[in-house]
Amino acid sequence: MSYNPDQYYSAIELLLYVLSFVTMILIFLYIAYERPSEKKKAVEEE
Asked: Most C-beta atoms within 10 A of its C-beta, which of 3, 25, 44, 45?
């Protein structure tokens, strides 16, 4: 089995795409989770 740098870098690139995708999902879930609690606080203050 020979060493192929193009294959190595494409694997790293794929890993970075997956990590960025997962990070965006986590950020979206965090924002979606935080917003209802802010609305509840605003209702309680009124």
From this structure: 25
**Dist CA 7 CA 38 (whole Å):** 47
DSSP 2: -
- Judge whether residue 43 has pLDDT over 80: no
Q: Which amino acid is at 1?
A: M
- The model carries a pTM of 0.58
Helix (H) or strand (E) holding 17: helix 5-45
Task: Give the alpha-carbon dihedral of 37, 42, 40, 26, to 10 degrees.
Answer: -20
